[in-house]
Design brief:
The model has no long low-confidence stretch (mean pLDDT about 95). A hairpin with a 2-residue loop joins strand 1 and strand 2. This protein is about 10% helix and about 40% strand. By secondary structure, the chain is mainly beta. It folds into two domains: about 45 residues, Roll (SH3 type barrels), CATH 2.30.30.370; about 190 residues, Fumarylacetoacetate hydrolase, domain 2 (Alpha-Beta Complex), CATH 3.90.850.10.
Length: about 250
């Protein structure tokens, strides 16, 4: 499969999808997941504002999916899933906002799967045909709330706690890409998705047994290694090999 980068952007007072070709954006018409066709219009990348590359109806995430992130926790026997609110989603260069009372907000670098075709009770072998592509994501987490609340409603689900972008990329071998985080330019996490306990196809198949996935839904597939707090003014970058760098500032 050819590698194609899809972006969602604002320019000239409207929001559009497009194909990113180097530093040129080629505008698309119609739905990204149905029958996107070029309009013939192009814009320089410098003339557009990149947005979150899709608008998901559901945001799911997998915890403890790298041995390097397990700590003292036992090896999971199935993907440990949770929901993040759709209002967590922000795009490149948007600000991550500390909610009132938050004291320990961490980054989590992740590869994010974007669903392109309705998936219900699909097998692991069938799952790849339901994946549209991948993007980079930051599963922002307030650790104190995560550890002390009944559920991860606040710890994982606050507004702005789900940056994704800058593009959705099709054609990559998503089972073997590097995922990296950099806080103020310093590398904090770096590991390949080939080290995941549950790969993306297994995750999609498992979720589809319980929840119907529809085009545009996204799945954060887990973070490697250890994380640390972010503070106001920090710049956090998440890079997924072949996708690009997602950059956000802490407000």
């Amino acid at each position: 499969m050819n590698i194609t980068k899809y972006v969602r952007y604002s320019a000239e007072d409207k929001v559009s999808y497009g194909i990113l070709d180097g530093t040129t954006v080629r505008e698309l018409r119609d739905d990204l997941f149905e029958n996107p066709t070029p309009t013939g219009k192009t814009l320089p990348l410098s003339a557009v504002r990149l947005l979150a590359p899709c608008v998901p109806s559901k945001v799911l995430a997998v915890g403890l999916n790298y041995r390097s992130h397990l700590g003292n926790d036992p090896m999971p026997v199935y993907p440990g899933l949770f929901f993040k609110a759709p209002t967590t989603i922000i795009g490149p260069d948007d600000k991550i906002v500390y909610p009132e009372g938050a004291t320990d907000v961490h980054y989590e670098a992740e590869m994010v799967v974007v669903i392109g075709k309705k998936a219900k009770n699909v097998s692991v072998a069938e799952a790849s045909s339901h994946i549209f592509g991948i993007t980079a994501g930051n599963d922002v987490s307030e650790r104190y709330w995560q550890d002390h609340d009944l559920q991860w409603f606040r710890g994982k689900g606050c507004d702005t706690f789900g940056p994704i972008g800058p593009a959705i990329v099709r054609g990559l071998d998503y089972k073997n890409v590097q995922v990296q985080s950099r806080l103020n330019g310093q590398v904090k996490q770096s590991q390949r998705t080939s080290d995941q306990i549950f790969d993306a196809d297994t995750i999609v198949s498992y979720i589809s047994k319980f929840v119907t996935l529809v085009p545009g839904d996204i799945i954060f597939t887990g973070t490697p290694g250890e994380t640390s707090p972010m503070k106001a003014g920090d710049v956090i970058e998440i890079e997924v090999e072949g996708v690009g760098t997602l950059r956000n500032t802490i407000a």
